[in-house]
Structures are given as structure tokens and as C-alpha cells.
Design a protein that fits this description.
Elements lengths: L1 H18 L17 H5 L25 H20 L5 H7 L2 E2 L5 H6 L2 H13 L6 E4 L6 E11 L4 E11 L2 E11 L5 E3 L3
Helix pairs in contact: 3-4, 3-6
Length: 194
């Protein structure tokens, strides 16, 4: 019977030990990289990072702007705008689709180097790229290389506002400009003073 008594004592001790075991935290601290549940379910929500319905993918998610696609889009928009002027349509729809920045985007020299396709690309970066993601493209007509990086997204009166930096390199000289643009109710982006 001593063996049975030992087994009974061992089981009682094991039961007591299991009943007082405290659960250990399984999540890493907030500053540590997460590879499990938190990684999949607690991601910070990013405003304006997907291609909106009705917009064509011009490569923003891949860090570039495909100007050949933009040319096709802008050609269709111009045709639609002309058609809406002739008919009874609303020309604001073209501005919504283009997502172009209204008003002076940046300094005069960079502004001269930016054509309609470059402005469209900039609007699409503001619409789709997550904060901190640089989107870069080259204008084959001017030779200018444009890089646009949204830095921070905040809520404005009319919708999201994005602080961004634009770097344009023309003839080996780079100019950097910071700005803030807010999405308007019609879908366009307008520069604001902050």
C-alpha cells in the first residue's frame, strides 16, 4: 500500500500545483514585433491605402506611378468632360476621377516640371499610399523624377488631410517641398495652410 499512497499523494500534489498555476502573458510587449494574433488583428488602420472603386490601378501600391496608364485615364476624362459640357452632365465628375490637386501644388520650378499626368499621380499618392510610403516616377518628357511621400494623415473639415513631402530632381538638382492637402467633397485634393 505504500506505493498506492505515494501515487495518491503525487496526484494530490499535481492537482494542487495545477490549480494554482497563474496564466503567463503570451502577447509580446507593444513595442516588440508581433508575429501572431496581434500582428494579424491589431494593425493600425491606414486611411486611403486601397484603389477606390472605379479607379484604375496606376501602380501606387508598388511604389511607382505608371504614366502610360495615367495617359489613358486622362484621355478618357477629357473626353468625358467635353461630353458632359456638350450634354447635360456635371464636369465635377472628371475632377473626382482624376483626384488631381487643385491650386498651386508646389514651387514654380517644380510646378513647371509637373504636367497633368504628374499631378494626377500626386493626387493618387495622396489618395492611396499609406503614411511613410514613397512613390517615385519619372516624366519622360521633362526628365524630372518625382517622389511623393505622405507623412501623416489627420481628419480635416472636409475629409482626410495628408501632410506630404515632394522631392523633384531636374537636371541633377533636387528640390524638396512640404505641404498639406485635404480631400474635398468632390474627391479632389486641395492644398491648405496648416
Amino acid at each position: 500500500m505504500p506505493a498506492a499512497r505515494r501515487r495518491l499523494t503525487a496526484l494530490a500534489l499535481l492537482g494542487a500545483a495545477l490549480s494554482v498555476a497563474a496564466p503567463a502573458p503570451a502577447d509580446p510587449p507593444p513595442w516588440a514585433p508581433a508575429h501572431g494574433y496581434r500582428h494579424k488583428h491589431h494593425k493600425e488602420k491606414v486611411i486611403a491605402h486601397e484603389v477606390p472603386p472605379g479607379h484604375r490601378d496606376v501602380g501606387i501600391g508598388r511604389g511607382t506611378c505608371r504614366r502610360e496608364v495615367v495617359g489613358t485615364i486622362l484621355g478618357g476624362i477629357v473626353g468625358g468632360a467635353v461630353g458632359s459640357r456638350i450634354g447635360k452632365g456635371d464636369g465635377r465628375t472628371a475632377a473626382t476621377i482624376a483626384g488631381a490637386i487643385v491650386g498651386a501644388l508646389i514651387g514654380r520650378e517644380i510646378g513647371r516640371a509637373m504636367d497633368e499626368a504628374d499631378r494626377y499621380c500626386t493626387g493618387q499618392v495622396l489618395e492611396q499610399a499609406p503614411d511613410g510610403r514613397t512613390v517615385k516616377w519619372r516624366n519622360p518628357d521633362t526628365g524630372a523624377v518625382h517622389e511623393v511621400t505622405p507623412r501623416r494623415t489627420v481628419r480635416g473639415e472636409t475629409g482626410p488631410c495628408r501632410e506630404f513631402v515632394t522631392r523633384t530632381t531636374i537636371g541633377g538638382r533636387t528640390q524638396e517641398t512640404w505641404g498639406t492637402a485635404c480631400r474635398q467633397p468632390d474627391g479632389s485634393w486641395r492644398m491648405v495652410q496648416r
